[in-house]
Amino acid sequence: MNGKNFFSLGRRRVASRVLVCGLLMLFVPTHAQQAWNGPTDGPPGQRNKRITFISYDFRNSGITGAYRGLFTAAKELGWQLQAVDGRGNLDVIRTAFARAVEERRDGIVIGGFEIETLPGALQLAKQSGIVLVGWHAAANPGPNKALFTNVSSDPDDVARLASDFVIAGAQGQIGVVIFSDDRFAIANAKAARMAQIIGECGRCKVLAIENIMIEQARSGVPPAVDKLNRLYGRAWTHNLAVNDAYFDAMNVALVKHGRTDIRNVSAGDGSTVAISRIGSGMSQQVATVAEPSGLQGWQLADELNRAFSGRMPSGYVSQAILVTAPLLASVNGNNIEFRIPYQQAYRAIWHANAVLPH
Q1: Fewer CB near the last or first residue (10 Å), C or N of the chain?
Q2: How far apart are the C-alpha atoms of 145 and 198, rounded to whole Å?
Q3: Structure confidence by residue, pLDDT tens digits, 15-58
Q4: HEC string for the chain
Q5: Is residue 6 scored above 50 in pLDDT?
Q6: What pLDDT score does 19 carry?
Q7: How do residues 91-130 score in pLDDT, each as one tens digit?
């Protein structure tokens, strides 16, 4: 990660610990608008651009949230935005990418998969002068050899928020199973970091890392629960996962074995379903680490706009949000991003007559 572009890792870790501790003490934030810590300058909006957003799978709510944010931002900029749902099928994704290159789109957003999975695609895009920007398209946020930039919160922070919440919220011995999908670099990064943090806790143990494709979570989780309960019994106390989808099918499977004692915490992605069940207070999922996907959609637009203007990436890395029942009660039915003045901030960059948030 380029030190000139991003905040130091140490500062991010301190911020993560402070946020975890605050929420564990049931801190209820005020309804005041947050201070904006993102970019405050950049090029004016470039008009009449044609963008294709290729989603790995729109069943992933994080990808959907980022697309919706980009859709709104694209309207603001007067851009034409085309969406393609890959449905987890690389053949569909390859065809969509080839079509976008053939149509000479100005930019392509890689939504939730790595460009390296498409042989020859990177070279085709470069030869055509097409800007490539990613959302969760690499292990870390920021520019890399394939992308102008990759938009994401820091997976280390996401993993730490989830892991610290588990450790701080439980007494006695903690036995953790981590659910992940090893096809994705960002999932591997989060899973490895969670395993490391749990492993460094003297009263904690990583019992297993279960590798299940995210789109197969509903069918894959119940038999995994049967196996894990048989192997670990009461030593199994918590689940961590790289995506909320693993917990969509978890509660019924646990109840079948009388395991209402197990607590579930997700290191991504703050799906609507997960937030609803956490807010109800009746689910075994007690927290999710949500990324501000709406904000990230606007950031995708801003990064594309910088590329179109011949500028460098902004270097901005959005902060993940630890979502618990007390936090949801504090926002009183509003979107968890509603205090972040990102739309106002980006409008102030793109439009000369807009007002920068205080």
Answers
A1: C
A2: 32
A3: 343 344 333 333 334 456 789 999 999 999 999 999 999 999 99
A4: CCCCCCCCHHHHHHHHHHHHHHHHCCCCCCCCCCCCCCCCCCCCCCCCCEEEEEECCCCCHHHHHHHHHHHHHHHHHCCEEEEEECCCCHHHHHHHHHHHHHCCCCEEEEECCCHHHCCCHHHHHHHCCCEEEEECCCCCCECCCCCCEEECCCHHHHHHHHHHHHHHCCCCCEEEEEEECCCCHHHHHHHHHHHHHHHCCCCEEEEEEEECCHHHHHHHHHHHHHHHHHHHHHHCCEEEECCCHHHHCHHHHHHHCCCCCCEEEECCCCCHHHHHHHHHCCCCEEEEEECCHHHHHHHHHHHHHHHHCCCCCCCCCCCCEEECHHHHHHHCCCCCCCCCCHHHHHHHHHCCCCCCCC
A5: no
A6: 40
A7: 999 999 999 999 999 999 999 999 888 888 888 898 999 9
pLDDT score for 231: 98
Domain boundaries, the chain: 36-152+293-317, 155-290
CB 240 within 8 A of CB 174: no
Residue with the larger pLDDT of the pair 122 and 86 = 86
CATH of 36-152+293-317, one of 3.40.50.2300, 3.40.190.290, 3.10.50.40, 3.30.420.40: 3.40.50.2300
Burial (0-12, 13-18, 19+ Cβ within 10 Å), 45: buried
pLDDT in tens, 223-232: 999 999 999 9
Cβ contacts of 349 within 8 Å, gap of 6 or more: 39, 40, 41, 42, 43, 44, 302
CATH superfamily, region 155-290: Response regulator (3.40.50.2300)
